[in-house]
Every structure is written in structure tokens, then in C-alpha cells.
Records
---
Amino acid sequence: MDNDRTLYIAAHNGPALSPMVPLEYGTDRPPIVIDNGATKFRYGFAGSDTGPYSWLNSSSRYRERKTNKPILLFGHSTNLDATSRAQSKQPYEGDLLLNFDALENALDHAFIHLGIDTDTVEHPIFMTERLASPLHGRALTSELLFEAYGAPSVAYGLDSLMSLYYNTSTPNQALMDSLVVSYNTSSTSVIPVCGGRALLGHTRRIPYGGSQASELLLKLAQVKYPSFPAKVTKEQCATILHNMCEVAPDYDQKLRELTDPEKMQQADRIVQFPFIAPNETEKTEEELARQAEKKREAGRRLQEMAVQKRLEKLAQKEKDLEELQALKEWKFKEKRAEFMHRLRMEGLDSEEMLENTIKKLDNDIKKARKKDAGDIEEEPQEEPTFPLLDVPDADLDEDELKEKRRQRLLKAGYEARLKARKEKEAARREKEEEERRDLEERTNDPVGWASKLREDHELLVDKLKLREKRKAALADRKSTANMNRMKNIANLASDEPASKKRKKGGNSDMFGANDEDWAIYRKINIAVESSDEEDDLQQLALIESKLLQHDTSFTPAHTYASLKHQKSALLSAYRPSYEQAELDPNPGTTGRSRDIEGAHRIHLNVERWRVPEVWFQPGTAGIDAAGLGEVMASLLPHTRCGRVFITGAPALTRGMRERIEACVRPLLDPDMPVMAVQAKDPELDAWRGMSQFASTEEFKTAVITKAEYEEWGGERIRRWWGGNWNNAF
């Protein structure tokens, strides 16, 4: 397997877990910078050279089942087991900060990790908030920071603008004039920046982000592999999205290219999920010998048990024979009425039945003794006699009449068995004659014999395909075949009913006079072809077995089972199959030997470009919104420049920067330069920009103190170039 085209999914999600060791707490009070993202929670001291500490922004609180002790987990540890995953919560629901218990757990983790062991957090706090964040979420966050942690001052900033600040090299202004495209977890924002200020009043938001992209990729994989043996999670899809998806410069042209099976195979990428290979250990000769000896010993025990059971049955039959012979002797010791009563008490209706039972037991005992002695030749059976059938009924009493009726039934059954035996013998001779002619024809003219069988095989295959096509057409309510069937049913139902009394000269129903009349029932009955299909499949199986045995040019790939499951080249390239059809005696069924490693693979081809294309064509995912190209076209007049800055984790998708340039280029004058700039590190530059800004004196003008919070409330913030404008002063 080509490792460059394959992504291996680890059996354990997330990095290896390690205990958190608090940092040493110094005497200085640098600001604490927190990037409160919907996916990752990043924190650290301002001006730190090591970068932020990054954790999954998820917490889980539950009770351990064995000890009943409360457990609180944060970060990747929430994915350890099913219980922690089920109880996990994130601070954000979409773009809204709603779960403040989860936010408090995240802040506790951050402050403990940073080594803060005092009663209050005596550090200024610089935290991100969502663009146009609702005042309710801001008020509760400020209340948490000021009231619960006792922070001296707090500032809020926008992650996209702080990423632009970190990547701006202009000394005269904090932000370079550009169009900022910020890819977030649940949305994508486009912010125009002009004159060093963000024009938040003209900002646009698209309701499609990294979370929706991962979910769309998951749904596409579930549709493509409905019976995939492993569970695919959104976290795994996020990894696949970042490693394998691309943005096409021209999506429609890319789709036209992928209609070529070769191009589809070249574009194919494999995601290999973990699997457990079957344990197939080769046995040594000693183990094989012991296993064979065990089988032989088991066979000997079964033979001994069969012999013992046969001897027991023989002894029981001999005992029954002696009892019946003793019963027969009572015929000469008592009256006939008493003797017949004795027979009925033993379950025998007549003396004739007694004689037949004795004769049958005697024959069975003789056969069993001869079989034990090795002589298995069967004696010719005597033809049964029915003496009472030739006697008139007037000469018989009541018991003899009953016996005569019984003999008549026995004779009818005997004659039916003779007839069936003769027909079976005739069919056997006919089959032997047919096999002899087939062998003679195959010996004299093997090419012609194979050609004839191939023609018969082709006719049967066409017949079965036509029947399958008719079934599929009848399943469609609006198909022509189904409409014709309903028309025939309506015509039969609308025929004039026959009158109860036939009148002279009246109309007579001639239906059935021709054999073709009955074909109408075959047309309207859907299940009538089942018996014919079974016969055709049996005949096809016989032909295929002969061709596979005697015609080297006829392979299992030519069988009906293989032809039935054969895919087109494009479909095979779209979803390669790891199931190999095996020869089955019944062509109507197919046995399959599955490749376990292949069964745990997901092949991505069209999906690699389809998922990122939603940012530019949201309608392809059912989102009623404008794409990035249309949004940027409406905002470019406000920036008066051709510079586009992209940030956020999805900005790392291959081809994203080139596609942004291709969208902007037709919107500007030919002589105006176009440049799409990607952040140095789209995931961490927002925190680095916050850390850099928090180390400057200007940061002190952007914070609100605890006294201002107590005077104006938690909804008010100070207005500055990197924060929100709503309810700012």
C-alpha cells in the first residue's frame, strides 16, 4: 500500500495522556492570555516563549461506578471511555457560549496548571469572545472572572483580528488593510479592515465551519459505506478533513475530470482504520497427527454406538416377533370373536394385518443378521396378494367387507408405487442416455460441444437478466410495465359478468378456448415466475459446472454470479470492493471471502473536493447562504485593496489560498495586485497575537477593571480596535 496515499487512524483517539504538573508561580503578575475556542482551549502567560498550552475544550463530570466517587475530567481525557464521553460538555453550542459550568472547569484547569495557588487570580486576563457576542454570555463570563476568581482586570478580543495583528508588519497601524476570512468551528466570518480598523458593521458570517465540514464528511462516508464495521467519529473525520481534503480551483472542471476511471483512481486516497486480524497459526505435524487420531477415535466410538443401537433394535424386533407368534397361536385356542377382540387390544385390525406384521418383522430380522454377517444381497420381495378383491360383496360378512376395502386401498398404493418406480427407472435410463450422448459429443467435437453450451448459457443469462429487469420495473409504480399490469387487471375486472341463467342466443364467454388466453394471468402475477426461475438457475448451474470442468476458456468470472455482481469501471474506482466472488453450485447465490484489512478501509475521491467546496457553494450542502466568493465581492469595495488574509484551522486545507485568489481576481481592476495571505500558523497565531498585544502598554487601555465592572455591569467593555463594538464605551 502506498503510504503517501493512505491515512492510518489510531486505535486511541487523542494524544497520550500525562499528569498535569503545575508551573512554578513567580512574584510578577503578567497577563494570562486565554483563547477560548469551541474546539481547543489555549492558555498561557503573555510574552511566553514556549507558546500556549492547548487542550480539547471539553469537560466531563460523573460518578465512578465502583467507588461512587465524583470524577471531573478535562481535555482529551474525556474520550477515555463511554461514560466520560456520554457526560462530556463543551462551553459552546454552535457560536453561542451557553455552558458556563464547562467554562468554569476549563478555567480551573488553566489556573491550576499555570501554578496559581492564591485565593484569587491576581493577573489581568485577556480572553477571546465570538464576533458580535450576545451580551448575556459576556455578562456571565465577566461575572465568573471578577466574582469567582477575583481578576483585577479583563479584556476581550476577536481571535481573527489578533491573528491579523500578529501577522501585520506595518509599524504605523495595528492592522493591515485587508479582507479577513476567519474559519471557525461553527461558522466562517469575513471582516473588512480599512485604515487600520475593522469595519464590524459590514462583517458577514457564513453558517459553515470546521464542525459542519467534519459532519458532512462523516455523513458522506456513512452513505458510501452503510455497513462499515468500525465506528467513525467526528474527531476522526476532522483528522481526515485536515489531511486529505483539498479545494479545487474549478470544482465543476474537477468533477468532469473524475468521470474518467483512471483519474478517479489517481485521486483516490485510503483511510485505514484499526482492525484485529484473525489468528491463523499453522499447526505442526504432531498437532495434525493428534487431531487426526482424535477424529478416528471419535469415528470408532460412533461406529460402536451404532452397532450397539442396531443390536438393541434387533433384540427388540425378535422379542416383538415372539410375542406376535404367541398371539397367533390363540387363534386355535379360543373363539373367533374373542381372538379378534384380542387382536384389537394389541392394535391390530385383522388377522391379515397380523400376518403382514409377522412377515415384515421376520424379513427385517433376516436382513439385519445378513448385514452383520457381511451379506447385503437383498431377497426379491414377494408380490402382495389381495384375495378378497375378486370375491363378490354378497358373499362377505361385515369384517370381510372392511378388509376388502382395506385391500383395495393397499392395491392402489402398491400400483402407484410400481408406477413411480417405473417412471424413476425410465428417467434414470433417459439421464444415462443423455449423459452418454453428451460424453460422446464432447469427445468427438469438444469445440462444438463447448460452443453449444455457451449459447445455452448466454440464453439463460439473458432470460434471467430480463426477469430481473421486469421485477425492477414492476417495483416502480410509475413504470410502463407496472402501468400495463394495472391496465390488464382493470380490463379483467371490467369484463361483463356472466348471467346466472343462460338465455337462448345470449352472449357466451369464450375465455379459455385458446391456450393463449391464460397468459394474461402470468402477466399480472408478479410471483408466478419464481418456479421457472428456480428451474433456470438449476439448469444454469449444471451448464456452468460442465463448462468450468471441461472448457479452460470458461472461468469463474464468466459465471452468472460474477456477472450479476459486476460493477462498472467508474463505480469500481469510486468504491473499490475487497470481496472476491467464489464459485457456488447455485448461481443465484454468491459466497464471499472478505478481506478484513480492506473491509476496514474508506476510499475518498470525490469527497475530498466536495466537502471544502461548501465554503464557496453552500447550496451543495443544503445551506441557504452566499458563498465566500459572493461575500467577498460585496465587501471588497469597503477595503479598496486586493489583500485577503485567511486564518483558522480550515485555512490549512490545500488549495484554499489559491481558490481565494481565483475568487477575488475577477472582482478587481486588472492592474490592481491580488494577494491571498495565509497566517503563519492559522491555529495558534490568534493566541500569539494576544500574547504580543498583552505585553504592550496599549493593552492597559483595552481592559475593564473590577471597579468599572461593579459600576457598569458585566455587559460593558471598552472599545478598542481588536474587540467587539456592541455595548462598548
---
Amino acid sequence: MKPPRLRRATAVALLCGAVLAAPAWATVARLDDSASPRAHVRSDFSNAQAMDGHVVVLPLGRIEYRLAMTPHLGRRARIFYVIPANVAGLRSPAGMLVQWRGSGAFASGSGRPGDRVQVWNGVVQAPWMNETFELTLRIDPRELRMPAGSALSFESFFEIETLP
């Protein structure tokens, strides 16, 4: 049996090797969604529905995304929906939950500001991926600090992780 110090040194060496080799396993890039009709989400509180004293539900409707996949054709990949960490007017990520329902190949899900949620896994087979999300926000009004008349807005984006 190895002495504890040698086992610890071996474990540290293996961990360091794994960390250094990790970039060789997968590469992460932001997907180009500039062909999307509307990627920027802006709230309209006139459609808000109070659920209880601490939650307001705000349906945002359908958001269409058109993602350029040409650089990743033929590669195994995972796609993530990324909600920006900083949302102007929001005091903390706990104050907003973004929920989406995919209408195509992407999975439905939810996340808070700063989250990166996997929505697709497979082999990229076309130069474009088109997806529509039905977006809904669940907001805790106690966590909002917005000037009167302003709107809550943010721009989520997609990242791709290509695998070897």
C-alpha cells in the first residue's frame, strides 16, 4: 500500500493533468444568432399576472432563433441556453426565473440569471438550426429596482460545446 503522502501527490497530479487536458475534450463557443428576427427580450408588464403576493408571471410570447451551425457541421455537440448574469433592474438572480417551451428539437426548461442550461445534444447535420421558444418570466417584484416606465430586458444567447 502506498503511503498517504504519495497517494495524495498522485491524486493531485492526476487532477492537474485532467484540468490541463479538459480543453482537448471539448471546445465552447457562442453561437451566431444574428439572423434571428428578435433575440433581445423586453418585458411588457401590461400582460403580467399576479400569482400570489410574491410572484408575477409575465408571458413574453414566441421568440424565434436562427443559429448558424456551419462551423460545427458533422461534429458531436451540446447546445446550451445562457441567461445573462446581470439583468438591469434586477437586484438578484433569485428574483427572476426564465421558463421556456421549445417547439422543435430543443428541450424545454428553466433557469435564473447566470445559468447555462443544456437544450440539445447530438450531431450537427445542417448549416442552420431554427428553434422557437415560448418564453415566460416568473418575477419576484421585491427584487426589482427599475425606474418608473422602464422595462425589464435582457438578451439570452446560445453556446455550443463541440466534442471530439
---
Amino acid sequence: MPCASLTEHSVDVAPSYEALRLGRGGTMVASCLQDVFCLPALSASVAEARRQVVFRLRSWGVGQDTLDSAELVVSELFTNAVRHTSSEEVHCSLQLIGRRLRLEVADQGCARSVPQARSVGVDQEGGRGLMLVEALSEAWGVRAEHGGTGRAVWAYLV
């Protein structure tokens, strides 16, 4: 499904110059592929989210490095949404503009804190998810979702 003209994109969508082309009438439009899916907020859904992301990105011809990074990022973000919120379902959206992938995982809220990368001890088993997201992403962040009760964590991968 192609995206609309650049002026209609939200601030979060910043296509790269190689993704731009002239459309009919000389207007600039970005070639864009999108997919959205929703899964129950269960631990078992994390593996299904990974499968869906890998399937979609392969069908779009995304390179293996980006595909591997996206698989890990969606795994970490989905796990956080399931583990740290009281959501009933978790939404995932993928948007490919040129070679730039925007991945977003949105929950229904009730988390105790704002997601942020943090330092953890060498002996700790968990707590490294957002550090991995930060390391694998060109940029990442958080925005309010579901009327402010939930949040969406997004990441850009190249």
C-alpha cells in the first residue's frame, strides 16, 4: 500500500532521499510498504510476532542484516509490552520507506514506568532489551498511545 504525499506523513516518518520519486503531476511521494498486526498479550505471542515480521520483511526483499535486527527488536519490544503492562493485546506496525524500516510496538498501557535503556549488572539475566534496541537502531523512542494510557515504542532500522 503506497504512502500518501510527504506532507501527509507524521513527524515520525522521515523517508530517506533514495526513497523519493516524482509522482504524477510532479508531486513528491515516497514508495512505502506497510503492514500492521495485532496479537494477544501473551508470552507465546512473542514468537508469533517474530515469525510475522520475518515473513513480511522477506516478502518485501529486505536484506538479511536488517531482517535479523528487526527480528530481535520486535522480540524485545513485544516481550516488554507483555511483561511490563496489563495489556490484553499488542499491536505491531512495519513501514518500509526505501531501505529504511520503521517498526513500532504499541501496548494498551498501565506500565509502571517509561521505557528507557538502563545499565544492568553482569550477573543480571534481564534488563538489556532496550540497550539492544538502542544498539541495533538508527533511532528509537516512545510516544503516547490509546488516549495516553498506553505507549508505542518505535525504532528505525536501515
